[in-house]
Amino acid sequence: MLDERKLAVLRAVVEDFVNTNEPVGSRALADRHRLGVSPATIRNDMVALEEDGYIAQPHTSAGRVPTDKGYRLFVDRLSSVKPLSAPERRAIESFLAGAVDLDEIVARTVRLLAQLTRQVAIVQYPSLTRSSVQHVELVPLGGQRVMMVVITDTGRVEQRVIDGLGEVNGTAVNDLRSMLNRAISGLHLGEVPDAVEDLPAQVPPEHRQMAVAVLSVLLESLVERHEEKIVLAGTANLAAVDFAASLRDVLEALEENMVLIRLLGEAKDPSMLTVRIGAENFHEGLRSTSIVSADYGVGNQSLAKIGVVGPTRMDYPGTMGAVRAVARYVGQILAGQ
Amino acid sequence: MLDERKLAVLRAVVEDFVNTNEPVGSRALADRHRLGVSPATIRNDMVALEEDGYIAQPHTSAGRVPTDKGYRLFVDRLSSVKPLSAPERRAIESFLAGAVDLDEIVARTVRLLAQLTRQVAIVQYPSLTRSSVQHVELVPLGGQRVMMVVITDTGRVEQRVIDGLGEVNGTAVNDLRSMLNRAISGLHLGEVPDAVEDLPAQVPPEHRQMAVAVLSVLLESLVERHEEKIVLAGTANLAAVDFAASLRDVLEALEENMVLIRLLGEAKDPSMLTVRIGAENFHEGLRSTSIVSADYGVGNQSLAKIGVVGPTRMDYPGTMGAVRAVARYVGQILAGQ
DNA sequence: CCTGGCACTCCGGGGTCCTCAGTGCTAATT
DNA sequence: AATTAGCACTGAGGACCCCGGAGTGCCAGG
């Protein structure tokens, strides 16, 4: 049904359309790509491609434009990830090298990815679920309040103020701190709930209320709010594009963090590049965008995702190359921290 | 030169133009505002206003549009800050009340402000320079590394990993921690450099290298990187506006945090509302935007700024009311934390 | 000093025309 | 059977023109 040449035509259509942003006609194709056949032949192939839904005409007597389905085939079978150039790789390395803490690593990564792809970049903070507790700190703040700081081995620091504990006693806090650290430091976060279950019983009754309050906040902050932090950059790059949906819709979608997190999370093939094209994104405002995402992590455990959002008409091989490369470098930097 | 009526005309021009986004003519003014004079008279006034540079015509035979100078006069003398409605105030309160930590307070504040004003909101994290040290924590991470966490009384937590200390000895770290806290906890950040100056001398020589390294990172993180954190929301609201400069330029300007920080920082009258109109913003991309900003803080000490960026054609009284109200509420919440 | 009247200006919407890129079809060629 | 040349057809969009109407500046009279 789709012989080699028809596929070549589809590839050519996608490539030309991405370059020119104009419907591509049979003559232009014959000229620019060495397909070895006449425009008329190409037209016949185009009819076949159109019948199968890979390309479409904006109107009669216009050239063809790839459909979502056409891009999908292109990404799956007609293209390969384009590796970055050596200068680009060096730029990544030097750009990320200077970061002093996790916040800065993430901030630099997202700006870097936006610059490389000239699109909107998204970086998710390393998930808490896969990390383990490095240390728990309790600091009396005066009054009835205590600040809890949890430090994980992925560099993330979670902080919470706990209020209304009744009188806060310095030594009681110290006891609780060392008890907590003995119980859970080094533990994987998933193991924390079990590990602290019977701690309150070991606390003298007069401080049990405080212990319970602290533990409930601890569990809550580690388990419930775990993946929600993401950072964006490069929204200005959207202004150049003209979307089918309004730019406003796209910007609105990008501000809804939960939507982005869900979209990033839906990778089919973990630890590989995922490309979601056009209507494959369930979200209304992102119907005319594509999302290229990848996992990053230390070793072969995935910590979180990074990704790029751009028009469906995007340079897939190049974008995929940039996302993959940046994901790898972030993993390395994180491992070195 | 500018009698009462001319000022009334200018006010009417600004108000109508903000409402309709179309040049306003003399007839429309006479109809909609009870100025008590005929269109012809208004035309004469308009000529005077135009000669003085307060309004301008996009082209002959069009109505008038306020200039930056016109908006400036309007803001300074012709309008008053519009207080929020009771439901709006309640909404603010309930929206901010549920925040559990500083990050969430800031995140909610910026979204709230964006929603209230239907423009781009900016919130700067509480400055470190005005806060004082609550507690310093040092956590050995294994290897040659130590994590330092500084907790301030404004709820901010700064973290840094310090590497290459040679062998890290647990008790040495403990000693250094308690020495540090004795020396600086409770101190205003500005006083920290002096207070730690002679600490290394008190450390046993074999651990002095570590102490020096820790102190230098401490000073660096507190002094050098102090104001740089800001958060944006509501960029989608820009899509509805048509700017003289391209939308892209505006979005780009908004991504340059340093630019925004500088603009927010340039308040004329501290602890008051500041309005910067059009070309008063030195930055190219923001030539056709106005910025309304205010300080927020606890008691009467200012901790940082919040602000709103929108088209020069904005509802100044309403925006100023929202910014002022949100600034006050954030201050209260922060004081309560 | 204000106002009605009037001639003038010019933007913007609507209509028409025309060009031209690109198509689909048919018949000829390989 | 596949490819190609030729050709009539289609529709978007640019150029052009026209015209209505909002709005102006100016003048003369109240």
From TrEMBL, chains A, B:
Sequence ranges assigned to domain HTH deoR-type in this UniProt record: 34-60
Concerning InterPro entries, the annotation shows: DeoR_HTH (IPR001034), GAF-like_dom_sf (IPR029016), HrcA (IPR002571), HrcA_C (IPR021153), WH-like_DNA-bd_sf (IPR036388), WH_DNA-bd_sf (IPR036390), WHTH_transcript_rep_HrcA_IDD (IPR023120)
Heat-inducible transcription repressor HrcA C-terminal domain sequence ranges: 103-320
Q: Which UniProt keywords apply?
A: Repressor, Stress response, Transcription, Transcription regulation
User: What's this protein's function?
Assistant: Negative regulator of class I heat shock genes (grpE-dnaK-dnaJ and groELS operons). Prevents heat-shock induction of these operons.
What is the similarity comment for this entry? Belongs to the HrcA family.
Name under which the protein is recorded: Heat-inducible transcription repressor HrcA
